[in-house]
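note to self — DONT lose this again. spent like an hour looking for the file last time. sequence + predicted structure for the chain T wanted, 276 res
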Amino acid sequence: MQRAAEPTPGTFGQHGRIESAIAGLRLALILAWLLLLLPVYLPVMMWEPAQTVLNKLFWRGVLRLANVRVRVFGRASPLRPLLFVSNHVSYLDIPVLGSLLPGSFVAKAEIAKWPGLGLVAKLGRAVFVERKRTEAARQKEELTRRLGRGVPLILFPEGTSDDGNRVYPFKSTLFAIAEEAVDGQPVMVQPVAVAYTRCFGMPIGYVWRHFFAWYGDMDLAPHLWQVLRMGRLTVEVTFLEPRMLSALGSRKAAAEHCHAAVRAAVARSLSGRSPS
């Protein structure tokens, strides 16, 4: 029996040239949006309130130009110090969460060297961490300093991106920054679930979700081009109950609790059972 051809983004329609033209226009507009905000952004990089406003404005503009719609359930905690922990599906998670949350992303050091995304991450004052024991103390000190200034941290504790259909276990070592009080205040940990649910207004099934999830050895540029060719994408973000790590008993227990909460919320979103 002949094996059926694997679906590709082009099978959504027969207008490949039009889709490519739209993708090119979207990419050009996103770059123009970055260049437009850059002169305003640079002078206020050290002023936290203004930077937070510009970060959200920039990412919301990117999402609008990329035709990505975000549905939000629950709310981000106003408590401080605060650590947001989220599952990680794609580079799209950055503008999605960046459009909603104040704070700094905690990113792998190699991202700082990526063309384009590295610059944007630096402008957003991401904290780049290296997987070296010799750097652990310094990096923890920097993270604690930001928490002490009232800046929430946004962390992807899977340690990698998943395929959008499941949530990998959370690494407990990444919860170490929430173990100790900051200026006498316990660190709150809020789980956040991100799910890619609809395209063209239709539910995204298991087979199609990898067109939006970026994981494994996928190349960034071709994947981004495919995403920009798509119709409207709907992403659901669910904010779950914040907890004190100390109340959960240990960072391992906190990782397991957050993973279970996020996994359940992602499953609800993917099955169309999100809160109304």
